[in-house]
Design brief:
Elements lengths: L7 H4 L5 H12 L9 E2 L5 E2 L22 E6 L4 H13 L4 E5 L16 H7 L10 E5 L7 H11 L8 E3 L4 H8 L1 E2 L3 H17 L7 E4 L1 H5 L4 H21 L4 H6 L1 E7 L3 H21 L9 E5 L11 H16 L3 E3 L8 E2 L2 H16 L14 H23 L3 H7 L1 H18 L23 E2 L14 E2 L10 H17 L4 E6 L3 H16 L4 E4 L6 H11 L3 E5 L2 H17 L3 E5 L6 H7 L1 E5 L5 H12 L1
Parallel strand pairs: 3-4, 3-11, 4-5, 5-6, 8-9, 9-10, 10-11, 15-16, 15-17, 17-18, 18-19
Antiparallel strand pairs: 1-2, 7-14, 12-13
Helix pairs in contact: 3-4, 7-9, 9-11, 9-14, 11-12, 11-14, 12-13, 17-22, 19-20
Length: 621
């Protein structure tokens, strides 16, 4: 330090909110400030800027400080292949394993199919559980014997269970929500649950034997507050069941972990994981306990995954893993980028591991506990989520608890409402999915997977006498657009080409380029290949180019000024040549004239993109 150095605060005085707003109003040019405020699906306002949080925020700490555990999924049906991949993952930097069984919340069309001693022994051959690596089960009604088989496996290996970090993953309410049935009333299910958890704990398995798993809500399209309320109510139901079985509350809470999805929304993702810890601490205090950090597992979200241009899933997974880690997750599992296509191969699994290794070893984001503490935006969103989720949690409890809310379908109805709004926004491209409703690659090449996605593996028939309710089925946001692309693929396989639309570009390049590129991305998101027309002033040349390309549809593309001068004439000529006509942009006062000239559809940002593409695909065939 020298005497010539000046404190930065003196050189750069702190700007005030009033000064910032003056600049914002100037940039908005008369538009409302509210245009900068977005809303979450919970209705929470997300402001463009926040002041530093006042006071001393509640610290959000991991149960295990420092590095989070990198978990690799073991989800290939063939146990020998599953074991080979698991060992590769551990050798390649994974800290532990996530055993996923077919029919579980996180199976996603795959999963282990055997739950007997032989299957578990083969899947975990040469895995050193005595080293204390974390191992968690994704339980399933199809694999009811998996936990007991795993306990016997540990016993045969002469490993002291208390030295392991094995989570049995007992989660009957999660399974009920996922599949829409309970084999018995909750009074009986809760006793069976408590018996199984207590037996495992008595044997020495005390590392999160039960899991309150909110992934089922996220995958079905629910909101952050719905995920948090579901997890809280589920954990409280498990806590009560264990207390009724004679387990003291302090021991019981240590047997319960949480599992949440993380997606590419960093702001809400970080806030959700932070809110989960705060809310559980509030439940602990209400039970007369001093709060202790809970064990929180994270998995990157299934609903954000796409089959088309799946390379974008790498970016989504990175953002999600970052959010979970910053938010304080103890263990994170990244879905490999080809997960939506089927069982990922070695390359996809390596990228899933390396995503987290880079965040830890190069970015060092594990070096600070609760790094967003005091940041105004994150603190405000965490507080707002806590308030909204706590209110929903109280409502569930006042109405009889989560088991009753699932049985009556009240909770599922709330999730369905949020999912419907989410689907509407995806259909209109308000929620943008790169590779699906934005910037599609219609000529993308196929990627390899070890086994194709199997939708049948996700369904489970309820047993006779089961108490049925509405299931929370997983849905990926990109699915509606992918189905349109699949129709186009069928045409390509059968006839050798895709449905086409001719982009009738009017005027000079500068006039039509923006809307022509918009139209290309718009139509190719539905599998309709766009063919650019020539730059010409001649209507005859335009019609000749249309006939030559073999398309049944045409879309006029240009500026508003040129639409006023030339669109009507061009539309009449193209209609005379047999074209079904679209126009890129809002027609304004020209709509009646253009429709009279033959234009049947107008495409623009914010229109129902999926509905328009569905009709275009049908007309273009």
């Amino acid at each position: 330090m020298t005497g010539q150095e000046t404190a930065l605060a003196g050189v750069f005085p702190q700007a005030t909110d009033a000064q910032w707003r003056v600049l914002v109003e100037r940039a908005l040019k008369g538009a409302s400030f509210e245009t900068l405020v977005s809303k979450s699906y919970d209705g929470l306002s997300i402001e463009p800027i926040y002041a530093r949080a006042a006071g001393s925020p509640f610290p959000v700490l991991r149960k295990n400080p420092g590095r989070w555990a990198i978990l690799a999924r073991v989800d290939v049906p063939n146990v020998e292949a599953a074991n080979r991949l698991a060992l590769q993952d551990l050798d390649g930097g994974a800290d532990g394993l996530h055993l996923v069984f077919a029919g579980s919340i996180g199976a996603y069309g795959g999963g282990l199919v055997g739950d007997d001693d032989d299957a578990i022994a083969h899947a975990l051959a040469n895995v050193r559980l005595d080293y204390g690596i974390p191992l968690t089960l994704d339980s399933s009604p199809r694999a009811l014997g998996a936990a007991q088989a795993l306990m016997r496996f540990v016993d045969r290996q002469h490993i002291e269970p208390s030295l392991t970090r094995v989570s049995m993953g007992f989660d009957p309410l999660g399974a009920q929500a996922r599949h829409g049935f309970a084999a018995e009333p909750w009074t009986q299910v809760s006793r069976s649950f408590a018996r199984d958890v207590k037996a495992a704990a008595d044997a020495g398995f005390v590392y999160a034997t039960a899991v309150a798993d909110a992934r089922v809500v996220h995958s079905a399209g629910g909101t952050e507050s719905q995920e948090l309320a579901f997890a809280l109510s589920s954990a409280l139901a498990y806590l009560r069941a264990l207390a009724d079985a004679g387990v003291d509350l302090d021991s019981a809470r240590g047997l319960i972990a949480f599992r949440f999805c993380a997606d590419a929304d960093e702001l809400l993702g970080v806030a959700k994981f932070r809110a989960a810890r705060r809310l559980w601490a509030r439940v602990e205090e209400a039970c007369g306990l001093s709060p202790k950090p809970a064990l929180v597992f994270a998995e990157t979200g299934w609903r954000m995954m796409s089959r088309r241009d799946p390379w974008n899933n790498i970016l989504r997974g990175t953002l999600a893993a970052f959010s979970a880690a910053i938010g304080g997750a103890d263990a994170v599992s990244v879905l490999p980028f080809t997960q939506a296509l089927g069982a990922p191969d070695e390359f996809a699994r390596r990228l899933a591991r390396d995503t987290q290794l880079v965040l830890q070893d190069e970015s060092h984001i594990d070096a600070v506990d609760d790094p967003t503490s005091g940041a105004g935006g994150f603190e405000a969103l965490t507080d707002a989520l806590c308030e909204r989720a706590w209110g929903l949690f109280q409502q569930i409890e006042a109405d009889g608890g989560l088991p009753k809310a699932l049985e009556t379908g009240v909770f599922q109805a709330g999730v369905a409402e949020a999912a419907a709004l989410r689907a509407k926004n995806v259909a209109r491209a308000k929620d943008k999915l790169i590779g699906a409703n934005q910037f599609p690659d219609i000529h993308e090449g196929a990627l390899d997977v070890l086994a194709p996605y199997d939708a049948a593996a996700e369904t489970i028939e309820p047993p006779t006498g089961a108490r049925k309710s509405a299931p929370l089925a997983p849905r990926r946001l990109a699915e509606p657009f992918e189905r349109l692309r699949e129709e186009s693929d069928v045409r390509l396989a059968e006839l050798g080409d895709r449905p086409k639309i001719f982009l009738a570009n009017l005027g000079p390049v500068a006039a039509f380029t923006a809307r022509a590129n918009f139209a290309k991305n718009f139509f190719e998101a539905g599998g309709v290949e766009a063919v650019f027309g020539p730059e010409t002033e001649s209507t005859t040349e335009l019609v000749d180019a249309y006939r030559e390309c073999g398309a049944k549809l045409a879309c006029l593309c240009s500026s508003d000024r040129i639409y006023g001068d030339s669109a009507e004439t061009a539309a009449l000529a193209l209609k005379g040549a047999g074209a079904g006509l679209y126009l890129a942009g809002r027609p304004g006062e020209l709509e009646e004239r253009l429709r009279h000239a033959g234009v049947t559809e107008f495409i623009y940002a914010g229109c129902d993109m999926h509905d328009a593409l569905r009709r275009a695909l049908s007309e273009a065939k």
